[in-house]
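Following the same procedure, backbone shapes were mapped to integers, as reproduced here:
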Amino acid sequence: MRGYIPPIGDTSKQAGKRLASLLTELAETQPFQSNIVVVTHGGIITDFLVHSFPINELTVWHPDFVTVQSQLIVECSVTILSWEKGKFQILDFASVEHL
């Protein structure tokens, strides 16, 4: 229910759009090839991904990405993105190799 508006807060669509805006601003204002770390909970990461990527790119990481998105990002996992020519690319999704 990406359009559900809770009593306090944003819809998941709004949250994904807000994170996309922040990440785009950071990517465009930081020096080329900077490393930027953003820490947030898994829900807003999947909201961002669903907002920012076509389904066929998300299903590379899980065949039913949209259906099970709320179960895909475990605690302390790392998702890595790159920014090139005004577009994000997913390099790694919900990795726990560091744990």
User: Anything to note?
Assistant: The mean pLDDT is 90.
